[in-house]
# Entry
Amino acid sequence: MDPVWLNFISFLAVYSLAIVSPGPNFILVVNTTLAGSRKRGLYTALGVATGSGLFGFAGLLGLLVIVNALPHFSMLIRLLGGGYLIWLGLKMVRNSFRKGGVVAEGTPAIVSEAPYRSWQTGLLTNLTNPKAWAFYLALFTVVITPGFNLLHKALLNLSMFLISFSWYALVVGMISSHRFGPLLQKGQRGIELVLGVLLLALGGRMFLSI
# Structure
């Protein structure tokens, strides 16, 4: 097999394993779907996938290497990422203590009614994750070879977006399904509290690693 395509397939295999691993993105998609709706969950998934696409675009252009070489960039990302996760976690915890886990008129506190807000939250959660920056930088350093042309780059970037969105859309579909949805809704407040605490812990861990 052509070494370029071998690198291509290997990259997507490692990338897929990383995508399905639970983390801030997964927590956010689960909570948004439970506290909001299937539609908001899908928009959040789209935001996360957009972030993956942007990482891919930057990595393929070599921008990740340039940006990561900037002084104190890693510390800045950890500060922003940690602060953002703590903010989201606090909103989840606060929301879990409200009646029914949602605010008046059925609007979840973590996202606004506008689908754009759900998309934006998913995008920012992905882009402010320092582990994502390190992961993509390491992966693109290996995959980009002299034979990697524009077609390979375009296909790889599209594949990253589709894999990310497909996985989180699947998560949204399972959570909002008739089989699992009613069961999860019964424990929504407890689930939201646990997810909020997890985000607080992840955010705090980022601050401690600075």
